[in-house]
Structures are given as C-alpha cells and as structure tokens.
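Glutathione synthetase (Rhizobium herbae), 348 aa
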Amino acid sequence: MRVAFFVNSIESEEPNFSTTALAMAALARGHDVCYIAPGDFVLRPDDSLMVRATTVPAGKYKNAQAFHDAFQGKDATIQTIDVREVDVIFLRNDPSLDSDDRPWAAHIGAMFGRLAGDRGAIVVNDPSGLALAQNKLYFQGFPEAVRPTTLISRSIEEIRAFIADNRKGVIIKPLQGSGGKNVFKIATPDDANLNQIFEAVSGEGYLIAQGYLPEAKAGDIRFFLMNGKPLVRDGVYAAFRRVPAKGEVRSNMHAAGTAEAVKITDDILAVAEMVRPKLIEDGMFLVGLDIVGDKILEINVFTPGGLPEIAAMHKIDFSEDIIEALEKKTAIRNAYAGSMSNRALATL
C-alpha cells in the first residue's frame, strides 16, 4: 500500500506531530510512504492527476527525530507519480495555517482530494465532507445537546448582550482558526478589554462567542474517534486531558497545555455517540473531540493531534490501529472493484 500524507508544508512538520507517528507506523507495517503539499498537484491535459511526492529511503528509523530529519535532509527525493499509483491520501493539513499568507493553499486538499478519489485513491477524511467543515460553523450542525450556548456575529452590541446573558463568562474566538489562536475569556459586558479583543478577533472575520463552562478550568478531553466510533484497544481509549498552563484559558498543546491521563466515563461515551451519525454521514474517518463535561467545545476533523502523547502515557501506539484500518479499506475497495464511494469507504 502506498500512503501519501498531505500536509501544509514538509518544512513545517515536526517530530512530535501525529502525522509523523502515522507515517512511521505505515512504514513499519511495510507500506510505501510519501508526503505531498498544496503545490504538488498537476492536472495534465489528458486528465491524468499527478503528484510530486517526497519520499525517504525505506527502513526502520530509530525514532521520530531521525524520521523527521530524513524528510528534511538530503536523503529526501521528489518524484512525480500518477495519483492512481497511490492507495490512500491522508489529508493532514490545517487550512487555518494557510488562510492568511497562502489563501490559495487552504483548501487544496479538499479540492484535489475529490479528483484523487474519482481516480481510485481512498482519501480521508472524505474531501467533500471536509469542504463542509472549512470553519467552525460546521460545529453548529451537530445536536444542540452537545454544544455550549453559542453566538456567531460581527456585532459588538450582539456580543455584549450575549455576555450579559451568560453570567459565568464567555469565550470569544475567531470563526476560522486553530491551535488556540486569539481565544479570550470575557467575564462581563463591561470588561475594559472587550473593545480591544473585539478589534483583534473581528479582523479575522466572524466571531464565535460561547458560554463559558466552569469545568474547563481543569482542561478539556481530547477524545479520538475512528470510523465514527471511539478509538480503543484493550480497554484503553485514545484520549487524554489537555490541562491549561497556569493563568491560561486555552488548553491547546501549542499554548503550553500539558497532557494527563483521563478516565473515560459513560457520559463522555454518550457525547461521542451523539455526534457519530453526522461524522459517518460526512465521511470523517479520524476525528478529535474536545470535550468539557457533557459538552463538545470543538470537533477537529483536519489535523487532530495527540497520538504521541497517548503513546507515551499508555505504551499503546494507536497510529498502528489507524493504519490497519486503512489497510482494510484498501482491501474492501479492491474487492468491490471501485464501485463503492469514497465517503462510504472513509468510515467503514
């Protein structure tokens, strides 16, 4: 099986990324691995879709740093191949990272991913589903029971009124974004910083204001779903608590959050079950839920991270389970001679 990992750029990848863990797991299971980036597609006049794939020598790398160094160094080679020679394209880019400096690149994965799927590659998450999730409005399509009270607006008057109605405080963040960038907590509508925060965040477009959940002080739970179901092995769930740094609202790992083991309760499983039908309908193969109490703060469908942290805690590399699931999808695709849709294959 040849697996292509689509990333924002090879230069911006890091050894501790989940994409690195997934690529190493694929390589360890005997598969060919390559990386592709937004500028690497070529649609030729004969309608063939080509990709400029970056590869490294096959073999066992002693650790993630060595594997990462190989892709960044002279051992990496680039070859142009027909996408029909690729079994799986794993879309692992974060569109928000390109939205400012390279807006043309933000949704290339979904655009060309659809073309690759039409030519026989299995593309996950399903590119048509990802096109629906280009910003946090996607979250509003899930049941109200699992969502915090939410306002989406560019009106500071609307936001002040919303804050006044939510006595426990409000979290404000941009409609498009990730990694905890420009996330603020406002306690009252008279907060002296509100105007400044509004100007900073609204410069990126629409704002989301969500009722603050006091349980978030202890952090949120990153909980992985695969094929719409909790990712679990031997009774251990692919999950961990993201604990915010002292004085910090955000629990994102990029914002100095730390990872702790967490017990998965029936309430958490019930929340996951509530969102399962839509995730399957949209072809979302691998998803990270950010859960506080009985609510979901975000549904990460592009680049959910945390697999290396989970492996360090539990000595279980869930990357292996994810690659094994892709192997099964490839076998099903071959057995059905391409008659199954990519969206159906994505969550089987």
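The chain is about 30% helix and 25% strand. The longest strand covers residues 49-55. ok done for today
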